Amino acid sequence: MQILxxxxxxxxxxxxxxxxxxxxxxxxGGKRIDNPTLEVTSExxxxxxxxxxxGGDIKTETKEKTSQVERVDYFDAPGAYKKGISFQSxxxxxxxxxxxxxxxQDKKVRGWIKQYAPFYIAQCYLGLGETNKSNFKExxxxxxxxxxxxxxxxxxxxxxxxxxxxxxxxxxYAKAEEIYNKLIALVRTENFDKELxxxxxxxxxxxxxxxxxxxxxxxEYTSLSSSAGKxxxxxxxxxxxxxxxCYIKKKDFSSARSHFDSLKSSSKDEPEVxxxxxxxxxxxxxxxxxxxxxxxxxxxxxxxxxxSADDGPFVYFHLxxxxxxxxxxxxxxxxxxxxxxxxxxxxxxxxxxWAEKAKEVVGSE
Length: 365
Fold this sequence. Notes:
Elements: E1 2-8, E2 11-17, E3 24-27, E4 32-34, E5 39-43, E6 47-55, E7 58-65, E8 69-73, H1 79-89, H2 93-104, H3 113-128, H4 134-149, H5 156-169, H6 173-190, H7 194-210, H8 214-227, H9 233-249, H10 253-266, H11 271-287, H12 291-303, H13 311-330, H14 334-348, H15 353-364
Antiparallel strand pairs: 1-2, 3-4, 3-8, 5-6, 6-7
Helix pairs in contact: 1-2, 2-3, 3-4, 3-5, 4-5, 5-6, 5-7, 6-7, 7-8, 7-9, 8-9, 9-10, 9-11, 10-11, 11-12, 11-13, 12-13, 13-14, 14-15
């Protein structure tokens, strides 16, 4: 509540006025649509609709392309929902699910919560599936419920990807491929951003990798890396790096080294690819128990200005492992350096699974 004080002839009078409630739309690039009377009335995969008061009871309706919107901040977001977001970011998925479920039961919240909370609950079950595969079934159930109730949900693409990932995680690869194909068809039919289709293609490649069919996975990743380049360098580069990782899983270390060395030479203008190649090269040596070579490659990775949030914690952890394997005779102050990298990992990537492993190591010493 906002309190206004007025000094009159007969003393002080207090008027209590309600603060104007408003939603805020944050566009990609940082620009805000911020008005004291703004109210978002619907969100779909294509459009976000909102109203503004033009005077009295008159309202004007405006639509914004969902693809141009970073997020919507709802004024009536309950405390339980905000706690759920916080716990989810910390990977405390079970507590986050409890908070989202509580938020869904809050009758004071408008209809937007029925899209948002179920989507994030499904994502949390996906996260829990990494340690208990039975949660992948719960994730699939949650994603399917969302898609059934909101067939044009603003989370449509991410929900399809999550649903496919849930089926893949539970080992139902045929169903996962079916979902990814539905996503690809949807993107083509609705003329969505081409990169969304390529995300589906990348997921399909991953299915072969998950089934240990590395030869087929390499073939599919190679094809995608060639075809995706003109529409999405990001997807093309991810496919290129995944080829090398498949060679490592296949224990074809010679091909893995050649592939990563080639990427370092051919991608000099793409620092994330170069750093990814150094990470892959380091892991290739690590898998062969060539810890000095692995240590050097991982150090070079750390020295890069740009690297992915996935590769970073992985490298820091394995760099510490190399120091343990090499010991003081090979690396002066190895034990001290190892602890530093583990603590740095925890500080720099606190929500990663590698940070959890680092905490276990530090706590046991």
